[in-house]
Amino acid sequence: MTNLPTDLKYAPSHEWVRLEKDNIVRVGITDFAQQALGDLVYIDLPKVGRSLQADEQCAVVESVKTASDLYSPVSGVVIAVNEALLDEPELVNEDAFGTWLFCIKANDLSGLDDLMSAEEYQQVIDE
User: Which end of the chain is more exposed for a tag (fewer CB within 10 A), N or C?
Assistant: First the structure.
């Protein structure tokens, strides 16, 4: 059993989501994902201003072992990316839940209802 923050929602593709004010959705990858990937060496983030649909592939994380696609948890427009990760992708390895990747201004928050609670996500990673 890992320590999953209960104030986040989780996607089956191992992204975490935090709803902030004004329909802003902050997105990162879970600790489970970063452990499975290993040491991250590169992150390709979506461009600010890009419109995304829920479940659309929008970013890539590369580790010494493999590359993995990331998906947008909601539909909306990318309003910010974590520029620090361009030079220091290993920040995700150091603190997956404290290191966000990008923020979306959501068009519609109903997509959050399709995401999992910490307890539901724990069941997925335990399987």
Answer: C
Segment 9-51, tens digit of pLDDT: 999 999 999 999 999 999 999 999 999 999 999 999 999 999 9
DSSP 8-state code for residue 15: E
Which CATH number covers residue 44?
Answer: 2.40.50.100
Task: Using a cut of 0.85, tell me whether the model's pTM lies above it.
Answer: yes
| 3-class SS of residue 82 | coil
Query: What is the Rg, in whole angstroms, of the alpha carbon atoms belonging to the chain?
Result: 13
122 in a structural domain: no
